[in-house]
Amino acid sequence: MKTFSGEYERTVDSKGRVVLPPAIRKLITDGGYISQGEDGCLALWTQEEFESQASKRLEQEANGSREIRMKNRFWAASAFAIELDNQGRIQLQVRHRTYATIELNKEVVVLGVMNRAEIWNAERLYEYRNQLENEENDESNYA
Length: 143
What we know:
Layout (H helix, E strand, L loop, with lengths): L6 E5 L5 E3 L2 H4 L6 E5 L5 E5 H16 L3 H12 L2 E3 L6 E3 L2 H6 L7 E7 L2 E6 H20 L2
Antiparallel strand pairs: 1-7, 2-6, 3-4, 3-5, 4-8, 7-8
Helix pairs in contact: 2-3
């Protein structure tokens, strides 16, 4: 498995493109996919990892509930092959930008998260991170 790591600030240009960091680009040179991720971000997968995720989801679906089928349906429907242009950019589709509240000419954060990279609306990520830190602080106050 190729491992994604790191945190990179980027800006989405006026055409909805984002330059991927070199450390992320080199892991998807053989192609990859973008889909809706968990918690309101976008997920980037290598070709190999996307196929692995799809297989796992099919296994879950075989014995799963209606909710699992619905989640899998929307995950697969939101997935598209990505292509890097000569400048290392990928195009973020309108539906993906809407889902992740990513705006043109605004900052995003690209996170390496082990088996995938995630693209976050920067403000949403920082709010999410602060929320988690506050929850941890609240729990430590009761320990």
